[in-house]
């Protein structure tokens, strides 16, 4: 062992464990150590709501894994075959190869039904997690500069998720999904002028044709997942680039991130969360039947069964179609039919909803006139109009989804489906407005409560009697953290409107546009509760004399402070 | 006795004993087995009892001679099957007016129902109560039944017969608890909003195939809990209230773990 001595001296620099050696091998060839070190030390703030996006990401991973399995057995063909499988109710029936292979996956392939069910449950959870994650981002204002583009990426991912879901549940070629395709065909047909050509283009002839399943298969396993993967990559890259937002609290500013390093804290938490989510999805797939295509039967354009609805994330479209009165179908000059009864609910309503979602960050940036970067999240109550708009949006979405389930509501609550439909027709206009109003008022009330707390402190339940006979309850002042949370926000004021004419009395160009933005800005910020300023706090405390009372001094200035406080809040 | 004891080792003894045992088992079974409900043979006394029951319980709405009134249809010619369906499911006599007669615990026992059916059948020719053989699911073909059900029944009763809504508070009831005989009678007589599927429309064999398909649904489905067999709406609801709720709970739990 003559070489032992030189090796001993080099030992400090060289790794000894197999993992270390492998890492070193990789690092010497790729310099990946720099990136790993950077990423492992990256700080993320700690909050459970930051894991909602993870739920979506991990259910997407489960979708990919189970989807690969299903693609090994599925035949995207509409060729007619006779199924000789063992389920008596479909044995010997004529059906498409797509439906037959779905039945084979369910009844012949080992573990096939479990995989199908995990795949479908994961799809429902994927969309639900995306919606909840978007709600978190929206209500906390995480879409503000510099993250507007990432909001767009996220919203696009949500729309792609809808496309993935729709193309996926149409693949088995059963009666229920065929009904959904027929609705999609109807929506395409309702588009003026190009509609009928588009329909022939999509289906390769008259619906249902012989091509749609193969085309949807390509969309479902190649096009949409590819786009989703790419955008997920971009989404996460931007998240790392911008650094993660953090909830307001002591010491947290727009210039720092307070939290823990990715390694080992978040690597462990994310790993745990992944297995937890995979476990829940597997349990759901194992115990709860989903999309029982063998009950719906092979597709045939004639039958439609009661309770024919799409998966939950498309239910709002179904609801919009169910609410729209059929009389809106009009025949224009020249004998052309304009199917407003389909066009409005299936194209214009979702168009409005998606436009709102995509445009909102830019709209809010415009009406605040705020060009600074924000990394500390808003408490929803501190931006009452945004919170109100978000709740109004969700209300509209939920009302439409309920309208899409109106037949089930009717049977389960013994109501008349006609009355339910009429109630929803009214509610779709009144509900969002009412939800906005209530939410905004609640937010303003909560803000007033915060002011009250900051200025007055907590009720202590301790009653002190002065020598003069006056009774007073002693309030405990808030500690630093509590106060920081309640005063450290910005109540935007409406934009200032420059005069209509310039100094020489000439009408300014663009004044009317500015006026419209100004009006919108007033709608957003006219009602606002300003945070307590240090001066107010000092005044309230000085005048109120909590500390003085604690020190057993005789103080009579408590009453004027209350009057003054009312003054400040106006 | 001695002669018997002497012959117990006879080579034919096991065979004789086996035959005796079979005879006893068969005899006991024949004596105690539930006898299949026999279609009541119509007799004049049945018709008379039925008439009395009718006048006490049904005549208020259907008229003293079942000729119908402004509130209720004539029952002349509806047949015994219609009476048996309506009365044995408790829909008639009706408890209260409403969008449609609700199924409820039956008010008349089997004998009374048969008497009423005999009386109404005597008023005019109509569909008779199907025999047990006509509604025996084991004799039907579920595959043909499913095809027939999908084209004729599923648009109101849902793909597997879980029920569905009709206009103005009316509904197609769930068939999950419905007896085979009642399913057949409903197709034959078209109660409430349901159309009549006469034997030219769906043959008696076709009806039996449908019953065979529904019988399969009553035995449950592959894949686990059926969540009411209501389709994507209930699946979506469960995805939110069970799946996502547990995952958010998990996120809160993991988030609360010390870092």
Describe this structure in words.
The complex is a heterodimer of chains A (570) and B (259). Chain A is mostly helical. Chain A has a domain of 255 residues: Cytochrome Bc1 Complex, Chain C (Up-down Bundle). Chain A contains 22 helices and eight strands. Chain A has a two-stranded antiparallel sheet with strand order 1-4. A two-stranded antiparallel ribbon of chain A has the order 2-3. The longest helix of chain A is centred in the C-terminal third of the chain and has 40 residues. Chain A is globular and about 95 Å long. The C terminus of chain A is likely disordered. A two-stranded antiparallel sheet of chain B has the order 1-2. In chain B, 51% of the residues lie in helices and 2% in strands. The N and C termini of chain B lie far apart (91 Å). Chain B is an all-alpha fold and 259 residues long. The interface between A and B is large, with 76 and 61 residues.
What is the count of β-strands of chain A? 8
Average predicted confidence as pLDDT of chain A: 89
- How many DSSP-defined strands of chain B? 2
> How much strand content do the residues of chain A show?
5-15%
- The CATH topology of one domain in chain B corresponds to Cytochrome Bc1 Complex, Chain D, domain 2
Summarize the main sheet of chain B.
2 strands, antiparallel
Q: Summarize the main sheet of chain A.
A: 2 strands, antiparallel
Global shape of chain A: globular
CATH class of one domain in chain B equals Mainly Alpha
End-to-end gap of chain A: 88 Å
Task: Identify the notable features of this structure and list them briefly.
heterodimer; A: 570 residues; mainly alpha; two-stranded antiparallel sheet; 22 helices; disordered C terminus; B: 259 residues; Cytochrome Bc1 Complex, Chain D, domain 2; 2 strands; 51% helix; flat
Q: In brief, what are we looking at here?
A:
In chain A, the strands form four sheets. Chain A has a two-stranded antiparallel sheet with strand order 1-4. A two-stranded antiparallel sheet of chain A has the order 2-3. A two-stranded antiparallel ribbon of chain A has the order 5-6. Chain A is built from 22 helices and eight strands.
